[in-house]
Amino acid sequence: MWRPAHLRDEWLQRSTRQGPARPEPQPHLRGRVSRTVDGHALLAATWGSLAFRKDIRADGSFHALMEQGRDRLALCGSRVGLHLTYGTRSLTISPADECITARRRARELLLAAPVAQVFRRLGGDLEETGALNPEACGVRVTAALLAEIDGDESAVRRLGRAVMAHERALTGARLGPGGEAGAVRTFAERVVRASVDLEQRVMRSSTWSTARAAAALDWALQVESATFELAVLAPSAHETPRTWRNP
Questions:
Q1: How far is CA 236 from CA 129, 203, 204, 225, in A?
Q2: CA distance 62 to 226
Q3: pTM to 2 decimals?
Q4: Cα R_g (the chain), whole angstroms
Q5: Where are the extended beta strands (E) located within 57-184?
Q6: Residue 129: which residues within 8 A CB-CB, separation 6 or more?
Q7: Which of 16, 27, 141, 227, CA to CA, is 20 to 30 A from 41?
Q8: Exposure string (b/e) for 30-57, b if CB count within 10 Å is 16 or more?
Q9: How confident is the model at residue 109, as a pLDDT?
Q10: Interhelix angle for 134-149 vs 210-233, to 10°?
């Protein structure tokens, strides 16, 4: 059919003849839990240009480092509290501290750290897909702690509830022969027990409180301690990096 020249296809911009652009594919998360030469557990993971490393001790205390290029954020946790470091700025957050100013400074620090926002997006992606294998769970614990510092006061409780609701997800993807199966079952049992305890401690509290913050930190340290035990009991099973994809 004849069409006026100004309406012919060859005169139309290319963008009007193409379908919508395809969304960029999500990065694949690669991670592993292993034992270090000094007897600690190490969770190492990458997600696109984001690198994550977390050194864990037997009591659950940890040092987590998030890196994207030269942008670095460190989060340390122990019974004393949480410690954030970004560039030359650092601050300590104690669960017993009711000071609103300290929490506001922590949120300002996270807002100034682009790598923190990327890591929180990773945590949100894992929460959406329900990933709960040991490596993903370790990433989600740190992401939940950052989320609570940043104002999402139910992040840790949601993760604890997800653990109780989908207990089999903690072991299903990792069960193998012999000692590995037993080690992963032990990990799952400890994480579930910690989650039940968390729910019992916070079920009567609908808003943030120092007691709730302390319960969230205790839960995180118990999960980290379970991860340490997993690395010690089945070190050979976690030496090879594994990739899991989001559905």
A1: 28, 39, 42, 18
A2: 12
A3: 0.81
A4: 22
A5: 62-68, 71-78, 81-86, 89-93
A6: 246, 247
A7: 27
A8: ebbbbbeeeebbbbbbbbeebbbebbbb
A9: 94
A10: 160
**8-state DSSP, 3:** -
Nearest to 116 by CA among 156, 81, 150, 165: 150
Beta bridge partners of 63: 55, 76
Q: Hey, what amino acid is at 137?
A: C
Cα separation, 22 vs 83, in Å, equals 41
Q: How many C-beta atoms lie closer than 10 Å to residue 145's C-beta?
A: 24
Which of 155, 159, 187 minimizes the C-alpha distance to 171? 187
Q: What is the pLDDT along the chain (247 residues), one digit of tens a residue?
A: 455 554 444 444 544 444 444 545 567 889 999 998 888 999 999 999 999 999 999 999 999 999 999 999 999 999 999 999 999 999 999 887 767 788 889 999 999 999 999 999 999 999 999 999 889 999 999 999 999 999 898 899 999 999 999 887 776 544 344 456 778 888 899 999 999 999 998 887 667 678 888 999 999 999 999 999 988 876 544 443 444 444 3
Residue that the structure tokens 């001790």 belong to: 57
Alpha-carbon distance 71 to 206, whole Å? 35
Give me the sign of the Cα torsion angle 31, 32, 37, 40.
positive
User: Long-range CB contacts (< 8 A, 24+ apart) of 21-27?
Assistant: 26/125, 26/246
Is residue 71 within 8 Å of residue 115, measured between CB atoms?
yes
**CA 58, 60, 63, 65 torsion: positive or negative?**
positive
Which tokens in the block code for residue 96?
């017993």
Angle, helix 155-165 to helix 134-149, in steps of 10 degrees: 150
